[in-house]
Amino acid sequence: MLKNLGELLSMGQMDRFYDDQVDLPLEAGEDTARGFEPNEEWLEDAEPQLQNAAMKAWFLSRYWDPANDTPYSSDAGGYIYIHGGPYDAREELEAKFGHLVTEEIIEKSAEDLESEGIYEWAPIHTEPDYDLAFELEISARENPYQGLTERISEVASLAKQDLDEPKAKLLFQLLYSHLISALEAYLAETMSYWVDSEQKVFRRFVQGYKPFQDRKVRISEIFDSLESLKGDVEKQINLLVWHRLDSVMPLFCESLEIERPKIAELMKHVLVRHDIVHRGGKTRDGDIVNVAAEQLTELQKLIMEFSDKIEKSLSQRYPETAP
User: Fold this and answer.
1) How large is the angle between the packed helices 199-208 and 165-197, nearest 10 degrees?
2) Higher pLDDT, 162 or 73
3) pLDDT tens profile 280-307
């Protein structure tokens, strides 16, 4: 795979691309600040399978599911494409590659991209994000856990507000979703701290993270690649979808060499959170997601038990040195 393609494919898109991965030769193209750019001469003469892979790499380095970073308003009838769009995969592929490949290849690539039900795409932002640049600067090992407990305490306090029923329903939805976000932040910040603090954790993360496994680097580029690797790892930690516990916890626990906590009960809540965040608080069938006080309390308890187990494992694996 081309040197930096793993950086350009993000979140769920990365999973889809690597599921049916085809290795592209170095001459297939190059990575740019805007995304993967195929070599047109190579593409025109390439085998159909390689054409398909290169075109999807081009598209997925520029467009993604609007659920990742696009405001949603049920009043407005859906996503608000403040950064442009929505974009259609067939139209974008045709405009870019119509003069180089057959209509059949374009249709196959578009079908692959739409195979998980995404038909309207949002642009990926390649400009540096100020918040992402600073939010994972964790100076002490206890900071992620402290931040999590503070968020949970805030949620518990806000849940006691005396509101009328419509406002209370909305508040509980928001608090429920916020608890999952707090857990995501805890996991990302914990991973960031230990990758930065322990060289062996950093090494295991790089060895275990599939996009890094699949990189191919020229001998002449090895030293430049090593120098940029630290920043690449931080970027990937930011891009990981941390509420996908089934996907991230194996990497998290193997990198840290700790026991993997059970996630089955938490994942049930993650699915509810998806309806709140991405369907405007409604289920797939259009029913309102009603979050009861008991559900909120249960989720708080599960998150604390989950994080406490991680903290206990970390204390055993990396005991603090007495001053």
Assistant:
1) 110
2) 162
3) 788 878 888 889 889 999 999 999 999 9
Give the separation between CA 83 and CA 125, rounded to whole angstroms: 8
Question: What angle is formed at CA 8 by the lines to CA 6 and CA 11, rounded to 5 degrees?
Answer: 80
Mean pLDDT of the chain: 81
The pLDDT of residue 129 = 46
Buried b (16+ CB within 10 A) or exposed e, 142-163: eebbeebbebbeebeeebeeee
CA proximity to 230, closest of 209, 253, 206, 254 = 206
- Please, what is the Cα angle at 33 between 30 and 34, to 5 degrees? 90
Per-residue CA distances from 294 to 79, 167, 267, 304 (Å): 31, 17, 17, 15
Structure tokens at 100: 């180089």
The first and second tokens of residue 38, run together, are 């195929």
Per-residue confidence band for 58, with pLDDT thresholds at 50, 70 and 90: very high
